[in-house]
User: Fold these one by one.
Assistant:
Number 1:
Amino acid sequence: MSNFPLVSALVTGVAAAALVAANPAASSIASTTASTTASTVSEDCPVSEYAMGIRYQQSAHSAAAQLQSWSVAEARLKKLVAGRRGHGEQLAVVSDLDETVLDNSALLARDLEACHTYTTWDTWSDWEVRGTPSLTPGAADFFEYADRHGVAIYYVSDRFEENKESTLATLRGLGLPQVVPGQVLLYGPSKEERRAVAEAEHKVVLLLGDSLPDFHDDFDGATAGEQEELVARHAGHFGRDWIMFPNATYGSWRKAPLEAWEQPLTLP
Ligand SMILES: [Mg+2]
């Protein structure tokens, strides 16, 4: 990525909309205010453990990782576009939305401040309709490049189909290209089936996501151990045709057992 006007999007925008790989649920949220630090979360709140993940997601460290992911994606796409010339191939990229293109951390922080367990996803639908997500830093440049070079863009997300008009409006409002109903494929069929829609008419050259099922259905429903094995098996894809984005706020890893050093704790 050659320029970083997007960092400002990260610094100013704290909001966004995301959808869990597993598919959240519905209901109501009210505010759209950003820039919460989660510092007001009570230690008595049973979900206060979520604060650390949100702090990371809203940190410059996360922004740097997002920039890195988009930069790798764009470098890969440039090579593919250069190699395409003269062959008439119709290239496409398939991108997840939430916590890949869109930053939804403001919703999660708002819920946490109210000591609400956002992983019940009962505030999500309202966010899809009324929320004000921001782009992750680097996203705008990547999609502008893809669009300018005739690469088809498919947005494959587990956002609610019944909120599709709102999601289309959100994406258009953020200036993303190729936001048309046929290229924004929401929750219903598996992500594999929706990726097949893009593959029917294009050569899909890049998959982008923050959750492993964004890349292959084998990850969906797999245990933590199975996912680990699958990541090792598919290691050659990452950073090449599969581009992973950081998301410390939710995911199928959330309740995975910890792997601890077996030595008993001894204090000096
Ligand atoms: Mg996502």
Note: Residues 18-19, 96, 98-100, 209-211 surround magnesium ion (CB under 6 Å).
Number 2:
Amino acid sequence: MKKKALTLAKLHGTPLFIIDHEKIRRNYRIFKKNLPRVQAYYAVKANPNQEIISTLFDEGASFDVASYNEFMQVYTHIRHFGEKDKDFYIWDKIIFSNTVKHRDTLKKIRRYKPLVTYDNADELEKIKEHCDTAGVVLRLKVPDVGSQVELSSKFGAEPADARTLIDQAFDLGLVVEGLSFHVGSQCTVFDNFTAALEIVSQVFHDARKRGHNLNIVDIGGGFPVPYDSQVPQFENLAKVINAELARHFPQDAEIIAEPGRFIVATAAVLVSQIVGKARRDGKIFYYINDGVYHTFSGVVYDHWTPNFRALSPRSHRAKAGATEVCAVVGPTCDSFDKISLSEQLPADLRIGDYLYTENIGAYSIASSTRFNGFEGAKVLSVNKRTRKKP
Ligand SMILES: Cc1ncc(COP(=O)(O)O)c(C=O)c1O
């Protein structure tokens, strides 16, 4: 990919964010193959690029959306369906996973009879008032120890409150379809999944015993990406999850998941270029044409550690000069815009040289801004398939 990426960068300019759709298809298939019982709802938040949604739609994926706009990005693909097929698609293949939704959003999605999550009583009242056609899924708080991004401090009902929240929903005339959780993104501690499934199974069986026929178990996201050799393998996690699902849940339970990072992280690379060079307090600072306000926003929001390789613009090879610890910083007039203060890079890089970053597909362009008038990376898709006309 490196050689091809550099050729494309010379053709299209930099910064260039290259999405490999074959890799997206492969990641989706690996997910499905290893978790055969699980329906995969791609979490659009990880990378909302419309072409990624199209590729996954063509693969038969389902979608996890957080907002009306994300919903409409998926809806575009089913707009031409007949009313019945459209209703079925929305019910079967889309979940609103944001546990707190704006009233206006609820009003707008009411006509689609959506599946939505909740984790508190006020949200239930809101759903009842503005979107009483919805099926609801109760999100529970679970351990997220060691995950790169924790979520449990903001989302999830305490398991001890689950009974009350389920009863409140039914009392309001809503139907609780199931339960969900999220162990935190880039979860490398498998025990988080084991503990979460244990917690959820207790609530699930308790509800069924009390006559509420819950069906859905949504195991969320968190599936780890091999950013480095320390990350435990997804295939091994899948074995643990499959065993726990078989142990805890009857065959008629519908198991779904919301993978985001796993589908897209390894499917994109970024080619950036050095635009300035200075020595500050003895350290080389490479100024590049992308930064934390742009494609490297994941360094801030996703607690992501980026990787850089210097490419020679002439030979397509990695530059091989003597290396030292350098800083790589963004182009804006903000000293916060530092991507990394400790990159082992050749000391002799020059303005115009290229840097290559792998595994940058998740939580990168998703949260890029236009701060300081910098547009952010140009996005280019490769290995797309020609789409059939609807
Ligand atoms: C509700 C919800 N579902 C799914 C995801 C996707 O998680 P991941 O990218 O770890 O697979 C997130 C991301 O944080 C989320 O908040």
Note: The chain has two domains: 2-15+267-382, 22-264.
